[in-house]
């Protein structure tokens, strides 16, 4: 082999070695872990539960929590609910709102929470009004129709409440309760009724399985309802007061016998018994009886004035309060004139009311026939008392 051939072979070896060396470097690179610059980012969220608070007011200004039936707001009715009488209509305003910082709107459902005692013969109506205030004549959007029994609420009786903005309280909803006492109301019956206002704020969750949740809060308002007591008693001729609820009643004593042109005077007092409410008394015409009802009974005439003073001719002088037609003697069978009102003052819990006096003047006219001598007749007057 010549030097040239050796050089040529040697050159190939160097090239091969160089190629192999290069291959070793690549192989080494395949087994080496490459390094990298690194950095991290973090995100943190703060999660706070919202607030939800329903409050109520009986004056339209001061709103507070009444969250249980035992702490129910005492509704303020226009007619004293401790002395209800048949046909009375009494009304009470109430307002509810979502308190400051409440985070959700609400739907409020009205339900009857609790009742105690007797609430029979009591019905009510519930209105939503545009302003605070409530009387028997108030109008508004009907939530519960008139005639609904106290102690019950129709299903799905609801209204909406909006939360306030910027953390303020929401706008209130004004309500008007009207309670009517029926003709069958029993004297002295007592019962309470409490209404519940259940607010639900709807929250819609997110995710593949959507969940509907609610914040809830309750507000209660109620009142006690008592049938009034109305009772009267009367006294004739200055005697003791007594119940005279059946005929013939108190006996009117005449001082002397009748003669033509002669009048006799008889005082009758009527008053309310202790614990009774006020009322009015109406004098009805007499029912005549006796053997000579058609003669003597038909001939007698009378007048009545309202007074608690001395019952005598002087009581009819001047301008007294005539129960019959002013100054005109009438047949015994005629009652008082239309439009006359004889008030009966309310009693206190332990003391009877102030008496209303009626002074009867009964006269045998001057022109009475001689044939009436020795005749006898009876007259029974009914005084009807009605609570007011």
Give start-end ranges of low-pLDDT stretches: 18-30, 204-212
* Tally of domains: 2
User: What value does the average pLDDT take?
Assistant: 86
Look at the structure and give the CATH class of the largest domain: Mainly Beta
- The CATH topology annotation of the largest domain reads as Immunoglobulin-like
Helix and strand content put the structural class at: mainly beta
Q: At CATH's second level, what is the architecture of the largest domain?
A: Sandwich
Number of strands: 20
- Written as H for each helix and E for each strand, in order along the chain, the element string is HEEEEEEEEEEEEEEHEEEEEE
**Percent of residues in beta strands:** 35-45%
Q: What's the total helix number?
A: 2
Radius of gyration: 47 Å
- Cα(first) to Cα(last) distance is 151 Å
Strand adjacency order, main sheet: 1-3-8-5-6
Helicity, as a percent range? under 10%
Largest sheet: 5 strands, antiparallel
Based on Cα principal axes, name the global outline. rod-shaped
Which features does this protein show?
2 domains; Immunoglobulin-like; mainly beta; 5-stranded mixed sheet
Overview of the structural elements:
With 388 residues, this protein is mainly β. It has two helices and 20 strands. The strands form five sheets. It has a five-stranded antiparallel beta sheet with strand order 1-3-8-5-6, with no helix packed on it. The chain is rod-shaped, with a radius of gyration of 47 Å.
């Amino acid at each position: 082999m010549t030097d040239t051939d050796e050089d040529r072979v040697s050159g190939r070896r160097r090239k091969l070695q160089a190629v192999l060396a290069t291959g070793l470097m690549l192989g080494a690179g395949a087994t080496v872990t490459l390094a990298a610059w690194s950095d991290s980012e973090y995100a943190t969220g703060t999660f706070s539960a919202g607030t939800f608070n329903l409050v109520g007011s009986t004056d339209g200004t001061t709103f507070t929590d009444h969250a249980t039936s035992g702490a129910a707001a005492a509704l303020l009715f226009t007619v004293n609910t401790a002395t209800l009488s048949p046909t009375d209509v009494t009304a009470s305003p109430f307002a509810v709102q979502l308190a400051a910082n409440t985070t959700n709107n609400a739907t409020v459902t009205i339900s009857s929470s609790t009742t105690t005692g007797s609430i029979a013969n009591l019905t009510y109506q519930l209105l939503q009004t545009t302003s605070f205030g409530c009387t028997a004549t108030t109008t508004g959007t009907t939530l519960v129709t008139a005639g609904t029994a106290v102690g019950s609420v129709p299903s799905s009786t609801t209204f909406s409440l909006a939360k306030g903005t910027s953390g303020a309280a929401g706008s209130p909803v004004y309500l008007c309760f009207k309670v009517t006492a029926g003709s069958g109301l029993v004297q002295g019956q007592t019962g309470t009724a409490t209404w519940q206002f259940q607010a639900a704020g709807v929250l819609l969750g997110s995710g593949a399985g959507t969940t509907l949740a609610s914040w809830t809060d309750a507000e209660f308002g109620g009142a006690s309802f008592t049938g009034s007591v109305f009772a009267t008693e009367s006294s004739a001729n200055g005697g003791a007061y007594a119940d005279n609820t059946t005929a013939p009643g108190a006996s009117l004593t005449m001082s002397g016998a009748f003669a033509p042109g002669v009048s006799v005077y008889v005082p009758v007092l009527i008053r309310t018994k202790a614990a009774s409410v006020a009322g009015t008394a109406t004098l009805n015409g007499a029912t005549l009886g006796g053997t000579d009802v058609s003669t003597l009974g038909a001939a007698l005439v009378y007048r009545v004035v309202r007074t608690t003073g001395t019952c005598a001719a002087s009581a009819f002088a001047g301008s007294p309060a005539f129960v019959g037609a002013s100054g005109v003697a009438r047949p015994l069978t005629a009652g008082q004139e239309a439009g006359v009102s004889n008030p009966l003052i309310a009693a206190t819990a332990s003391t009877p009311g102030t008496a209303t006096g009626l002074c009867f003047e009964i006269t045998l006219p001057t022109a009475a026939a001689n044939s009436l001598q020795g005749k006898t007749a009876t007259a029974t007057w009914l005084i009807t008392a009605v609570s007011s």
